[in-house]
Please model this.
Amino acid sequence: MGSREHFYRLLGAPAAEWDGRELPLGPPQARRVFGLLLLDAGRAVTCDRIIDELWGDTPPPSAKVQVQGLISGLRRALRVLGGPQPIVTRGASYVLDARPEQTDTGWFTALTREGRELLAAQRHSEAAQRFRKALALWRGPVLEGIPVAPEVLAYWEDLRLAAIEDRIEADLGAGEHDRLVPELRDLLAAAPYRERTCGQLMTALARAGRLAEALELYRHWRDRLVDELGIEPSPGIRALHEEILRDGAGMAARDYPVRRTVVPSQLPPAVPGFVGRAALIAELLADLAPDPARDTPPVLLLTGTGGIGKTSLAVRVAHQAAKDYPDGALFAFLRGTSGEPRSAAAVLGGFLRALGVPSGSVPADVDESAGLFRSLVHGRRVLIVLDDAAGEAQLRPLLPAGAGCAVIVTSRFSLTGLELGRSVPVGVLSDADAAALLAPHGDVGTTAARQVLEYCGGLPLALRIVGSRLSDEPGWQLADVAAELSVERKRLDWLQAGDLAVRSSVAVGYHQLAPESRRLFRRLGLLPAADFPAWAATEVTGGEPGTTGAALEDLRRRHMIQPAGRYAGMPRYRVHDLLRSFAIEEAVAEPGREHAVERALGGWLFLAEKAAARMPGSVLRPEPGHAVRSPFDGADALVADPMSWFHTELPALEAAVSHAAGAGLGETAWELAVVTSSYFDHGGLYSEWLRCHECALGAARASGCTRGEAALLRGIGQVHLYRDDYAESAKALAESYRISADIDDPGGMARALTGLSVVARSTGRPGESRTLAERALAMYTGIGDVLGMAHLQTTHAVASIQLGLFDDAEAALDKAWRLCAELDDPHRMALVLRRQGQLQLHRHDPAGAMSCLRRALELLESMNDELCAAQVRLDIGRTYTTLGQRKAATRALIDASSHFTSAGNRSSAAACAQLLDSLA
Model:
């Protein structure tokens, strides 16, 4: 039943599927037509025959038209994107174009044929397996719910019963006679004249040593045949009767694989002091609870990285569930992460011996062993734990078929190819569970304990090692452990105790990787952050996206990395911090590592520039520098929503700045920091802004990037300005101006003067502010920087308002508006409207002021600029106060004040407070 194609079912209610999804067939008449076509799949069914089947001798005049409509409806129902149209017209006939492998009857025929071939070769267990698969395709009578000719029903029912008898023949060959007796009695009661069923029941009774019952059964069955049908039994069953009479004891004594009942108990001890995962354990126990409606065994696939605690969890759950499995518990360590995983045959041999099979009777063939194992546990409630599985192929022969058993599997691999089973990814411990695991060794509320928990990252193995070392080394405290783990390059050295070691646990998975996946994992250690998008993996390897994507999938399947969602359709991943420490160690000697780092950082710079270009223009942003950019396809889609992209990538961007600084890439560090300032400014993220710029500043100075140094100082000055720290702001801006003058950078000089003009205005020196603005405006005009010119006209206007030069202010704002229109910059227009509102308020025109301010607020809110919107709300609050509208003024001022307080803008928050006090 391959995927991505139609599959049709008639062994039960008629159904059509596409890629495993059932398609709606429509009303009853359409389903009946579909059933007719399906019965003759691949052969032509005439329109007249369909009419005859639907209406018999009294078809309506529109019968042909109705048939055409029903066929059209079925075609629509079966049509799927990218799939073929299976109903074709041939003259006045219709054909359901389906291969045998696309129908359940085709599969049933093929499986029963294979079963009979295996039965002839005396491979009984394999034969029984084929027959069971064939019979599992039956979901009810043929075309259930649709009128079908009696001879058709009889034909398929005969085939079904024959398959059941063949399966029983195979089970008898495998020695299942005791178990088959009740089933055969039921079958014979339902079909009392089936000679083969009677003979099989006689055989099962005789082999079980129940000779008298076998002979009595034959006598009653023969009498019924003679009395009711007037015929004698066939020579074959008479010969069986004579064999039982002649050699009954011999039949019972033959070496059929009759087994004594053994209740194995192989679970290893549960880990003492196990804590946490209560919700997950409850969920797993619920899955393992007995359920009479279940027709397959529950198979729980606990998957996760090394050291995550899969085995401890599996054993803990198994011990708690054992009461529901009174027929025993089997455990096998499959050595999936070793160089030589255990073969399924070896594991089955151990299981069979544990179930009472003598060593000499264990089949050499793995399929026969699997069949015998399933036979022995059939009808019993046995719990099976398979630890450290290597993959699906190793597991398949080890799974029971009966619903009474249950299986718990642990593996570092994602076992998505296994037909049975529910995948249960096992992640790191929650903060609360990790703290509980550490609690016996000290106060988990201390700073040191929180640091230890952070360094261990919720990995149970790491926490167990910490606990073990604290218990083994008297005098050690959590503060000592925190100090040891704080040095990343020594962290894995310290996290080992006896045969427990995080490094060796990670190394097991690492050395099993294919060369391409191993190389990618090493190079992930070169990325600045543990959380990364797929494109970054491609850049750091210098490979093709398709090749890198395959390696990423391999790492994900082996739980060396974890999926971290998607952004704009691109997958993101995360490496656990301790696995990343291992990758960093392995990458130390990686050839070409410097270029790989630069390529990856260049990808973030390339995207950040694209995102910043979609945001409101900033006079702080200088001309680009000379750092490497790494363009790639699909970048535009990623930054379509620039604020969202910056928000998603902020941790990586901050880490990238720090990483570039540490790698001596001063040019990259300052460019990344400065281009990200657009987002910091727009979002009011002053702490992040200052931290990023100060980190990059040291790298820029060390690398001699003077233009970058000046740009970073301007950004730092702007942050201090927003925080009303005017002295620090002036200091940074003056130094930026000096450096820009030294390198003859008029744009840098103008930007520094712009900031100094605002400092002068904010400290009560409007005349000086106006003079500085005029100098900066001249510089912007000289270099043709229209954005700078618009900004400085606005700055000039604000200083003029403070000086009472309202006409000058109005003229400057008119020029600013025209420049903004030239730029098509709605954000800058909103700022001009704000200043126009302030001018109108100073001219005692509160209504005109309110009109400008509301237009400004509407624009800013549409761009999600909370900082500038808060400033406009402050102005609106002032205007409402002038108008005497106290409630409206209070609402606007409270909204503005909450933003200023959280952003650390003390002067604006104080202005709100002062106005609110006046309204009280």
Remarks:
- Residues 604 and 653 are 7 Å apart (CA to CA).
- Residues 256-261 have pLDDT under 50 and may be disordered.
- The chain has 41 helices and 16 strands.
- The first helix runs from residue 28 to 39.
